[in-house]
Amino acid sequence: MPTPAPHTADATAPAAPVADASALTGKRRIAFASFVDENYLPGFLALLRSLALSNPDVCEDFVVLHDGLRPASVAAVRALHPRVKFRRVNAAHYDSYVKGDQDNYLVRKAYFILDVFRIRDYDTVITLDTDMVVLGPITELLTLRHGLAAVPQFFYGDKTRMLNSGLLVIQKEYLTDAFCAKIDAIGRAGTYELDKHDQGILNALLDGDFVDLDPRYNFVKRRLSGDLPVPEDTAVLHFTGRHKPWQGGEAGYGLAQERWAAFELTDAELHAAYLESGDTLHHDLLVHYGTPHVARTGDVDTARKVALAHIGAGDYQAAVDILERVRLPIDEAWPHEVYGHALMSVSRYDEARAQLLLATAAPNRAATAFARLAQIAWVHGDDDRARAHATAGLTVDPTHRASRLWHQRTVGVPAQPAGRPEDQLAHVAFYMDRQGNAGDKLLPESVRLAFGPDTGPRRWHSVHAHRLFDEAALERVNARRGLVIGGGGLFIPDTMPNGNSAWQWNVPDDLLARVDVPIAVYAVGFNAFDGQSYRAERFRSSLRLLVERSAFFGLRNHGSIEKVRAMLPARLHDKVRFQPCPTTVTRHLIDGWQDPVAREDTILLNAAYDRAGLRFGHDYGHFLAQMAQAVRDLGALAEVKCAAHSLDDEKLAFDLRREHGVSLPVIPMYDFANDEIRDLYARTKLVIGMRGHAGMIPFGCGTPIISLISHPKMAYFLRDIDRPEWGVSVHDRDLAAVLVERARDLLADHDRTVADVHGRQQELWKTTEANAADLRALLGG
Fold first, then answer.
1. Which residues of 525-559 are buried (b: 16+ CB within 10 A; e: fewer)?
2. For the whole prediction, is pTM greater than 0.85?
3. Any signal peptide, and if so, which residues (predicted)?
């Protein structure tokens, strides 16, 4: 193999380290918080159980403030919540507050909860008192974005507006040193009502300036005196007063006491109740409760649910592990189908086939099982068998989308023309299907254009990244003059999972090690979402071998460079260099490119919906409402159209019309040829896009962009071109106003903005040209 090219093309490295993912995406970090000690531990455990059972789809971090808990108590809390964070309070903060009440537990508890305002890791913190139980949905609290919210309370004979501090929803502007300093000043001065403790301090500080919550979110026990029933719409029941339910309760509140007692469960009882609590179970809680339940009972249905949760999170080996712990009945198809899915995802293909064939016996699972069998056959290069399985799936269910896709992939597959191998480069990429993502469809051709104008089979030998790289594929690659790997964010664990590499190229280490032509990794991206991780050492090992074997290793943004270098030994860091995505320099790659003489008076809007939970969190309703307002306001600047890179992207237009009465024309870019994609983006005035290539492709065509940031890669790109202001987080409180203001600025002097895009692009082109010189020395041509 030729000597690796010298590292000469990384002069544009950013001055500061790339921030963490949540800082880049603006995704809100939410946590619950309580002050807990041994006296109130029984109440807190009941609170955790009630939260899980009443809101089975909610599992945020839970911060436990304490001034000393026994190890057994810590273990009991951890058993009930998978995302608990323990923080010891500093009692010295409050020594000057308590004034002789140091031994009063209620006073200590009231003051120590004030430590919640010293939390700096979250954007929203929801406090829950340890004498509460959650009886109904509280998702509304998770969507609050402004201020400090609480249920107002009134003391007898006192009409002053005050808050009840048992439940607070606190936004980040209050989680500051400045606000804590104000708390300390009032606490030391004693200018508050001593009998109300923490709420006295907060009321003195806020003076009635807080956001009202409905009383159902902090429904106090005293309203039920005389054994009144708890109202059906109560979301949070608060056992105020000195007589707590775990201490026997108080006369006159028997029905309320019964509601609390319903959560006095053993761990085994909780697990069983949670698993039966609904169809929408949070991944973390399902795994946390379901795993011991399976170990205790051997329940197959629970094992299947837990396995599906692991698969959804990209933890395929864990899915295999839990299903291997139980005996799967021959006549229950669904567990076999899930087990087959997990096995194929870790490349145990023969075992997967056996499980999936068992699953085809049941009509309700057969189509999915046949589609997975078709996928396995296609991965192994057997188009005929893949087509047969896909046809069987369509016979069971003619509407089955996955079966139809696999059938289309194997029908009329043209044989590659026989070019001379010594004249060709092999090209590993994700080659998108018809009606697939428009950006991914364009990428392989764009990579090839960076190596010359001939992008066809005379010069290129295609290797689909998702097909198993076997001995025959190795022989074909080694017959070429080099191997190029590139075309998108190939470093992602779950697009087409495999156990050979744990990224998109399905290549075993021993075959990768035997590639004996020069390897050039070109403009690949590290595409993990905020909240998504590579869990297996398998990926790190494959990545390390790939870098070692590569003569050129270029990543498409400095964020990816930082992430990849962190997974490599220091000796390999310098091999990782910057190579912009070739779509960002399209104007320089297309022979005879002509910038448009005139542009259409349009703004193209794109949104993405794959992995929507990771993109939006609890903020999709907020995003949609903001986009509705933005579309109305942008309409005064130009006609707004929805640019759908994939079929799923049309959801934006559907939801805007259904929820807000806003209609958008939809452009089905998934049906476009590559030249049509480039032409559309070159002729519009502005593109507002959430997909990475809904930003990079129009930018490469010379069109101004604004990125809707829901993935770190968007911020990485804008940072590399030194235009972070061209992005706005989908979580931004004022998304519509910010978006419209930036669009107006970019359109106000459109020629100047286009010239700025060209200037930013020129810097990327300089890097691309410098790298091209190194690649010519390596690969020829």
1. bbbbbbebebbbebbeebbebbbbbbbbbbbbbbb
2. yes
3. none
